[in-house]
Amino acid sequence: MLLQLQNVSGGYGNKDVVKNVSCHAHEGEILCLAGPNGCGKTTLFRLILGSLPLSGGHIFIDGQELSELSPRQLAGRIAYIPQYHTPIFAYTALDVVLMGRASHFSAFDAPKAVDREAAFQALETVNALELVNQSYTALSGGQRQLILIARAICQSAKIFVMDEPAANLDYANQQLLMEVVTDLAKKGYCIVMSTHSPEHPASIGSRVLMMKDGSVAAFGPPASVITPENLERVYGIEMDVVAIRDRYGCSRTICLPVRPPSGRESNGL
Ligand SMILES: Nc1ncnc2c1ncn2[C@@H]1O[C@H](COP(=O)(O)OP(=O)(O)OP(=O)(O)O)[C@@H](O)[C@H]1O
Q1: Residue nearest (by alpha carbon) to ligand 1 atom 8
Q2: Which of 9, 79, 162, 205 could cross-link to 193 by cystine, CB 3.0-4.6 Å?
């Protein structure tokens, strides 16, 4: 098991935002975090990344307790892929990917041939080699996501934490991102990602952790978690979860609100 959370609690000051959360993910799995705004998804990520202390419970990364890992060891196991990242300087895409190698050389070293080779391989993995010399700040949101994924690959971590990676992407780029994530899982990476679309976990998730008020509302395979009952309990909205076949005969799941939330009809939305 690559990632295991046992009764994890934590938050800010002396207030627990995340309460007693247990879940796990194996190599090659996509663990999707779902739940309404403010339910504690980002806070749970901070606990997993070691940037917030636990007030209770245990987190194991590849069998080792998180608190026993040095920052360098942690960086070699788990990588954070932010939703949006604007560097101060006009770095090229290659520079940003090479930043993933920071834990492989000391602060005074320049990247070596082996680091550049790793960066090119990572760019190839996400099919973004053509961006190598482009200015990172001039890239689109979707292209930046690919570069940040390549940076995480370069870090040699096996677990990628992605906080709402699809939030700023148009529909086509969301699809591309989901394909890249699925591909990474097939290569053995473990992806932990939050999303506001119930269709993402339904279509690509291996397991879904649905949170409500900082606690686990449901955890398990998508078919047992993305249900009309759970969606109504957690989001307070009636939803239909419908299995369809697309034009190529592939089965898909779509989630539709049964009727507009109360009050919406009257304001014309
Ligand atoms: N730095 C902080 N200090 C104090 N409280 C915080 C801090 N960051 C978040 N919170 C609070 O913790 C709770 C959970 O926030 P969190 O960002 O983890 O939720 P989320 O599920 O990621 O939300 P969203 O889906 O809107 O991104 C919220 O009530 C929020 O106000």
Answers
A1: 43
A2: 162
Residue 256 lies in a domain: no
Whether 240 is in a domain gets the answer no
Residue 49 CA to ligand 1 center (angstroms) comes to 15
What's the 51 CA to ligand 1 centre distance in angstroms? 14
Question: What does the pLDDT look like over 220-267, one tens digit per residue?
Answer: 999 999 999 999 999 999 999 999 998 999 888 899 988 765 665 555
Judge if 139 and 197 occupy the same domain. no
Supply the range of the domain harboring residue 116.
Answer: 83-156
Q: Are residues 6 and 137 in the same domain?
A: no
Same domain membership, residue 7 and residue 33:
yes
How far apart are the CA of 43 and the centre of ligand 1, in A? 6
Burial class (CB in 10 A: 0-12, 13-18, 19+), 120: middle
How many whole angstroms from 184 Cα to the centroid of ligand 1?
Answer: 28
Q: How many domains does the chain have?
A: 2
- pTM summary value: 0.90
Residue 206 has which token pair?
A: 């291996």
Q: Are strands 78-81 and 159-162 parallel, antiparallel or unpaired?
A: parallel
How far apart CA 132 and CA 116 sit, in angstroms, is 11
Is 17's C-beta closer than 6 angstroms to any atom of ligand 1? yes
